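Morning. Coffee machine broken again, so started the prediction first thing and wrote up yesterday's gels while waiting. Chain of 62 residues, entered below exactly as on the submission form.
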Amino acid sequence: MNEFLRTIHCSIFKKWVTYQLENYHLEENDDIISFHSKNANGHIGFYASWFINAYFFLGYEE
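Came back before lunch.
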């Protein structure tokens, strides 16, 4: 039952992330979501056993 719930929770989280990033250019490749904007870049990976890895880079140009 825990594995089943973990699968559902991660699927919901993945959809939630895509809805939060409406102002970014999104690219979805299999289990990796990449997003880009003028001031930020990042990747969120969804891996085996529902391990989630996130990398964000925020940089502001003046």
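The beta strands are 25-29, 32-36, 40-47, 51-58. Going to sketch it on the whiteboard this afternoon.
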